[in-house]
Amino acid sequence: MRTPAANAQLALLLEVAGTPKPGNVDRRRDLEDLRFEHFLAGAVGARDGLEMAANGGAVGAAFERAVAGMAGQRGGNTQFGSLLLLVPLVRAAREELSAPVVEAVCEDTTVADAANFYRAFDHVDVFVDDPPADMEPLDVRRGSDAVPAVEDRGLTLLDIMSRSVPGDDVAREWIEGFERSFRAAERLAAADGPLGDRTAAVFLAELAERPDTLVANRSGEAVAQEVADRAAELVERDALETDPDAVEAFAEELVARGVNPGTTADIAAAGLFVALEREAIDV
Amino acid sequence: MRTPAANAQLALLLEVAGTPKPGNVDRRRDLEDLRFEHFLAGAVGARDGLEMAANGGAVGAAFERAVAGMAGQRGGNTQFGSLLLLVPLVRAAREELSAPVVEAVCEDTTVADAANFYRAFDHVDVFVDDPPADMEPLDVRRGSDAVPAVEDRGLTLLDIMSRSVPGDDVAREWIEGFERSFRAAERLAAADGPLGDRTAAVFLAELAERPDTLVANRSGEAVAQEVADRAAELVERDALETDPDAVEAFAEELVARGVNPGTTADIAAAGLFVALEREAIDV
C-alpha cells in the first residue's frame, strides 16, 4: 500500500514513461535539451514537497518545495503544471480523494499560499503568456518580486488560479473541481493493457477533447486546434490499436515542430495519481 | 543538491532507463512479466528505506524497509541486489563515500542486521541457488524462519555476506570494499554522452569483465561465461559506437533466452549512486 506522496511520485514517472505521447518526452522520445532522465530526476526531487502536502502542509509551501526539488536537474521545467495539480490532490487524499474535498482544499488557500506559488517561479523558467496590462504587477514571471503586489491585493492562490482561466487548463482544474483529472482516472481504469499503453490512450483522448493551452500559448490557438483535431481523428479510428504507425508519426512530427502538449501531460499525471490512489489501476 | 536517499532512488531509475542493457529490462525492453513500470514502482517504494539509511538507521532495518517498499508492485523482485549495495553506500555517505568508510559500515553490522536481512526475504521471491547441506538452516529462502539459526550462530550481516562469496557478486562487493561499484562510477564519469548511453556502456564493460553470478546461478556457469565473452567481444570492437545493431541484437537474444544479468545491473546502480554523490555525473 503506497502512501499518497509515493503514488504522486509514481504518477509523475508513469506519465513520462507512457508512449507514444505526441510531442512530448516519453519512453521512446527525448527532446533536444529535455530528456527522459530530466523527468526521472524531477520526480525524485519533487518527493519531499509531495510528502509535505501528504502530511498536511500548506498547499503553497508544499508546492514551492516540490518545485524547488523538481528544478534540481538541468532540463528546466519538467513537471511544474503536474505538481500544481498533484499537490492539492495529495492534500485532499489525506481526507478523501473526491471533487468536493479537493475543491475545499483549493477554496481554503490563502494569500500566503499565493505568495509561495509566486516564489516557486524563482526556481524554474515556466512558459507563460504575457498578462493583460492591469495584471502586469502580478505577472508570475516576476516570481517573488510580485509577492508584495499579491499581498497588497489580498489574493489567495485560488484567486490567482481563477484569473488564469481561460488560457491555462491547469488553473482551470482548480476552478472546475479537477474535472478532467478525475475523468482521466476513469479512462485509465477503463483502458486495457500495460499502463504505458493506457497512459498513451488517455493522453491522446484528452488531447483530442480540448486544445492544449501550453501549445496555444506558445504556438497560437490555430496550432493548438489543429493538434486537437488531428488527435481526434486518430482517436476516432482507434489508431493506437489499428494504425499505431500513424500515432508514432504524429508523435515524431510534433517533436520536430517543437509542439509540446504539456498541459495534456499534466492532466494525464493527475489522472494517474487519482487512479493509483483509488486502486483503479495497479502496478 | 540532492540528498543521498534521493540520489540512491535516482540511481535505481537511471539504471533501468539505461539502454541497451542486454538481457534486462531497459528503456526499450520489457520482459514478459517484468516490465519497466515495475522498476519505476520499485524505486518509488524503496525511498523510505533509503531515507532510513541516510538518517543513520541500522543497515539491516533500512534494507528490510527498502525491500518491503520495493516489493509493493506486481513484477516481483526488481531491485533487491541493488538495494543490498545502495543501503550501506547511503549509510557511508553520511560520513564520507569512500571504500574504507563503507567497509567500516559493513564491519559494524550486527546479528540484528543479519536477522533483518533474512526478514527481507519474506517480502519477495529472490532467486538464489541451493546452499551447501551444513548451511541449510541458513538458507535465505527460509526468510524470517531462519532468524533463530542466525541468532544461535551469532552471525552478523557481514558474516552472512562472506559466506555467500564466491557465487554472489553482490555479496562480494561487501567483502571487497565495493571495488566494482566504485570502478563503475569512475567509468560513468569517464564515458561520454547522455546518461542512458553511459549506463549502457558501463553495464556492457562490467558484464564483460566478470561472469554475471545471477546468470551463473540460474543458467549455469557455462552460459555466464559465454555471455561475458560475447560482451567482451562487443566491448573490444567498441560496438556501442561502431555497430550498435549488434548490441541491440545481443540484448534481444538474451531476453529471448531468459538470460538476465541482474548482478551486473546491481553493480551499475551502485556505480550510478556513487557517481551522482560525487557529482562526477550530472542530470
Automatic annotation (TrEMBL), chains A, B:
GO terms for molecular function: ATP binding; triphosphoribosyl-dephospho-CoA synthase activity. InterPro entries: CitG (IPR002736). Signal peptide: none annotated. PANTHER family: CITG FAMILY PROTEIN. This is Triphosphoribosyl-dephospho-CoA protein. It comes from Haloterrigena salina JCM 13891. The lineage of its organism: Archaea, Methanobacteriati, Methanobacteriota, Stenosarchaea group, Halobacteria.
